[in-house]
Amino acid sequence: MNANTMPRRALFILLPLLLAAAVSAQAQSTAKPTAAGKWLDKRGHAPIHGDAAAGQTKSEVCRACHGQDGNTPVPTFPNLGGQRADFLYWELIELKHGYRYQSPMTEQLAPLSDQDVRDLAAFFASQPLAHAHDASADPAAIELGERIFHSGDAQRGVPPCQGCHGTNADGIAQRPGWPILQGQHPAYLAARLRAYRDGDPPNSSNDFIMNGVARGLDDAAIDGLAAWLVSRGGTQHQ
Question: Taking 70 as the threshold, does the pLDDT of residue 157 lie above it?
């Protein structure tokens, strides 16, 4: 049976299905590959150096979301000011090359050279560390967060956070690829910890560690850590 002999009603039913199949096939043939299954090894790299003054001139687009000095008023965006240049560089490289394939940052970073990324990292690292504050934080939550940060939770298999992030969450010189957490927005911190805990695909060697650490954190522990970390305010790291 061809289109000339096929009943008109049947033709009207089949045509949309055939068109949908054709569109689906075309989409599959032109779809860009994703970064699913890819991860970036951040271990053992040479220290990052960049030109902070050059980075400032290149940061105009960044300021719309992250603020003039990298400290944003938007609680769901991360503060960048005062972070370690090594951490910032590798985070940007991770985004630039699509290891976080769902991020809108990939398109913005794609045109930048490696030197551009180094300069941006140097600029934001040179800015003041955030002084975020949450006056509404529950003192009991802050106490819980402090206990987990310094001592972990042996029963849940959670190690002390200070081992990688410093006693006061201000980083460790020997671990420049790990972030400073003090003064960060609690909403952002809590969201990242929940993503790690709930099985967000690892995008880097650091993420594999954090997936394992966060697996033992319940909501109370995550909210407590976020509350304690923001209570640290911010003091410029050395």
Answer: yes
